[in-house]
Automatic annotation (TrEMBL):
Source domain of life: Bacteria
Subcellular location, principal: cytoplasm
Protein name as annotated: Deoxyribose-phosphate aldolase
Subcellular location: Cytoplasmic granule
Species assigned in the record: Faunimonas pinastri
Pfam families assigned to the protein according to its UniProt record, in alphabetical order: DeoC
Gene Ontology process terms (BP): carbohydrate catabolic process; deoxyribonucleotide catabolic process
Keyword Transmembrane among record annotations: no
Family: Belongs to the DeoC/FbaB aldolase family. DeoC type 2 subfamily.
Catalytic activity annotation: 2-deoxy-D-ribose 5-phosphate = D-glyceraldehyde 3-phosphate + acetaldehyde
Length: 319
């Protein structure tokens, strides 16, 4: 998301843009349910889509036992996500694919930056009391600044879900705006924790407020909620993103995360993006997938495409 990626400048808080919104749950579920049945992607086209998905992955480790060594191995996989023989067979040797970013905890940012130096792959850091986001605001802002000082170019913040549940839109706006300012040059990805927000109306409203406050991306989940990324929730967020873009002219990115594990999952969300936002969003500057094990399955599917055989999953270890 670095380089020529635009920033969302945000707007003043305008509740009239979202307060009266109605979301038809059955219509959303029906639309989401037809996405993967109306379009079939096979053979070389599927391989191309899977390579595209690979380049949009935020390769993530957010475990309590993370170490610099684990982060280093993850970074090496990020640099070379596909085996060289698969890259050669796909005709990509001149420009081998790499993932969109590596996402870690703030204390692991420095090892990630060191391991990725010269690769062009940005380091993303969760922050702001991830995953609950319930530490006091000064500490959350300090955590952002720490991660940026360590070299993070993207910050995945978590919002205070109670602001949404109680309709405290000014408080939510002020919180995200303060986080945006703390990010400095780093891009801000706002995690809504949609599994905690209860209704799709709340998801739409939280999306709009986060974008008004300057979020460069809106993201579904931490991966720690009982319900994480789903197609109906993602569709709702994308409709909010589209409405915000039509109103302001800004392009805000989208990131589903949590529970996305397979190559088939990646195709479903690529189809959603293509049909709702168009080809311009099929780019790591505007679309990311938060995942870890998904990469191994994509590599396995691409090996099957080039060899006609499925390898054991153990041949595609993450790192």
């Amino acid at each position: 998301m670095t380089g020529n990626a635009r920033r969302n400048e945000g707007t003043a808080l305008k509740p009239e843009m979202f307060e009266s919104i109605q979301v038809n749950l059955s219509a959303v579920e029906r639309r989401a349910g037809t996405l993967t049945t109306r379009r079939s992607v096979k053979k070389e086209y599927q391989a191309a889509w899977l390579v595209k998905a690979l380049t949009c992955i935020d390769l993530t480790t957010l475990a309590g036992d993370d170490t610099p060594g684990r982060v280093h191995r993850l970074a090496m996989k990020a640099r070379k996500p596909l085996r060289e023989d698969i890259v050669e067979a796909l005709g990509l040797a001149d420009e081998p694919p790499k993932v969109g970013a590596v996402c870690v905890y703030p204390t692991m940012v420095a090892p990630a930056v060191k391991a990725l130096r010269g690769s062009g792959i940005p380091v993303a850091s969760v922050a702001t009391g991830f995953p609950a986001g319930l530490t006091p605001l000064p500490q959350r802002l300090a955590e952002i600044r720490y991660a940026v000082e360590e070299g993070a170019e993207e910050i995945d913040i978590v919002i205070t879900r109670s602001h949404v549940l109680l309709g405290e839109w000014q408080a939510l706006y002020d919180e995200v705006k303060a986080m945006r300012e703390a990010c400095g040059h780093a891009h801000l990805k706002a995690i809504l924790g949609t599994g905690d927000l209860k209704t799709l109306r709340n998801v739409y409203k939280a999306s709009m407020v986060a974008m008004m406050a300057g979020a460069d991306f809106i993201k579904t989940s931490t991966g720690k909620e009982d319900v994480n990324a789903t197609l109906p929730v993602s569709l709702t967020m994308i409709r909010a993103l589209r409405d915000y873009g039509e109103w302001t002219g800004e392009k805000v990115g989208f990131k589903p995360a949590g529970g996305l594990k397979t190559a088939k999952d990646s195709l479903a969300w690529l189809i959603l993006i293509k049909e709702e936002l168009g080809n311009a969003w099929l780019d790591p500057h505007l679309f990311r997938i938060g995942a870890s094990s998904m990469l191994a399955d994509i590599e396995r599917q691409l090996e099957h495409f080039v060899t006609g055989r499925y390898a054991s999953a153990s041949r595609h270890a993450l790192a």
